[in-house]
Amino acid sequence: MKKYLDSSLSALERAEALVAEMTIDEAASQLRYNAPAIERLGVPAYNWWNEGIHGLARSGIATMFPQAIGLAAMFDTDLVGQVADITATEARAKFNAYQRLGDRDIYKGLTLWAPNINIFRDPRWGRGHETYGEDPYLTAENGKAFVKGLQGDGRVMKAAACAKHFAVHSGPEALRHSFDARATPKDMEETYLYAFGELVRDAHVEAVMGAYNRVNGEPACASEFLMGKLREWDFDGHFVSDCWAIQDFHMNHMVTASPVESAAMALKAGCDVNCGCTYVNLLAALNDGLITEKDIRRSCVKLMRTRMRLGMFDEHTEFDDIPYTVVACAENKAVSLKCAERSMVLLKNNGILPLVESKLSTIAVIGPNADSRAALEGNYCGTADKYVTFLDGIRERFSGRVIYAEGCHLYKDRSSVLAQAGDRYAEAVAAAECADLVVLCLGLDATIEGEEGDTGNEFSSGDKNDLRLPESQRILTERIAAFGKPTVIVCAAGSSINTEADPDALIHVWYPGSEGGTALAEILFGDVSPSGKLPVTFCESADSLPDFTDYSMKGRTYRYTRENVLYPFGYGLTYGAVRVTGLEYRDGKAIVTAENSGAPTEDVIELYLKDYSVQAVPNAALCGFKRVSFGSGETVTVEIPLAQKAFTAVDESGKRAVFGRRFTLYAGTHQPDELSGRLSGTSCVSVDIEL
Q1: Candidates 2.60.40.60, 3.20.20.300, 3.30.450.20, 3.30.930.10; correct CATH number of 45-263+309-326?
Q2: pLDDT tens-digit map of 385-395
Q3: Who has the most CB within 10 Å: 92, 164, 213, 373?
């Protein structure tokens, strides 16, 4: 038996043995994302590129979960871990089938380039909905849960996770191939690197993907500073470039003069696999003396080690018998529905919700997102075997008459090319006239809010120019509001939106996955209480935001500002009436008592810590949370651990330490700011802590 086939040896020993038998040409070929077969050694072709931030993506049918920002809104890491586990299971099921049928194409492997743990620092960024929001702690907790769920704890990894995009990457999309993100040592350690460090050290993420941009002058995929951080954290996986990012070295960043130099620079820095085509120049770089054979073999060993860890050279693994029938099965879609239910955020309710069905005979469901599959999907998504749009969900749940009208195009001034502008407004008003209630389904989708190159470039290469709805929808909203019917606005978007409206109720549903319409209907009619919380601050206006290209955290996110806030981070209403009544801190744990005087509901107990040292962030910062189920009239006591890291701060030099001695710990169903208290009608309780 060849040594690399001996499963009793470590993955590293087997990888070293395999690479030792490769010629240098063969080893170099394995550093491309579409690695060819080495038939003489029994190494099958392998494509490293697969996606799965909210379900297995781009590989046909799969369970479609809410987009990542919606998963973050659940404030439920156990459920995020379950999502990742299902994603890995379906990836394995498809991999097993594809291998048997000889299909080794893109999006069919076990290395999933997920999660995206960039910080959603600016609400204009089009890719923000791929992330877990604006808070480093919330991002890290969700990211760790996702990685552990994806990779599993078996003898071999179920699937390999990848923390992306390392680092300091959050727009503008139009500039990403040439942009130099400048960040202070404090902002780097405190905000931009925090989640990456947590995923490497605690979750042992198998891969890290570099970003397109430069970071303080260095291209992210060949940054000595960033690669040094990975060494500092004892990273034990492989590094992959973002797709075609290495060609930016010579084409846009102008830090090298040729593809050969770019390939050499990336490899020498520690980029092991190139998503793109620049590594076809590795042998030329070798011949020019820019790299050594050792450089090539070192990276090849790391890649083969990952394949060994995935069991690709084992005679049999515990995952080889996962049947194809688990893909999009009823049990998995039930989890998607649960996620959608927990992710939707009730921002406003004057008492109209939940709807009393017996008092309604006709509902008008109006708007460009009412019957839209795209409004369920987000980006980097798979294909659901069935989609329940918002219109579908309401039709299936409501026993009365449902009248539908598109209302307007998502962003254009007309729906029919040959029609005059505003060609759907009259139909919408006519529908509203006939109804007892209007459900107005507005927002965006990933064709206009997303990644540069994937969108229609209607909003600055996927970014948003402002935080308002497209003009066509603003006009529709005004027309419906003027009619005076009771109205619930349902906004599907992956980011902060100011609808500039005053409806009876406002629900932000993100991109809620294939079961989104069912979840919405359940919430509207009170079958399920809404319980999601905002993982990002909803701002009033883009005009008051710092410059998009400014990567300083000053004036950004709830930790640094209370200005320009429409709805605060951590805010979200329920049909219950939960309030925290007691808080103790002992032995590293918060003991929180909360009571519900309203309808049965789930709610999230949130902990925030205010550090009074000069090195700390200006406002109290999230340091713990727990989703809790409450019966009507029920009082619950829960324990929530606080990591010692919660008491640390970061100074201007980037040093993290415990600087403060005096802290205040807050507990509530929202953060301890005046606006959250006013909107929710409840306050946080607090205890002072001295170290």
Answers
A1: 3.20.20.300
A2: 999 999 999 99
A3: 213
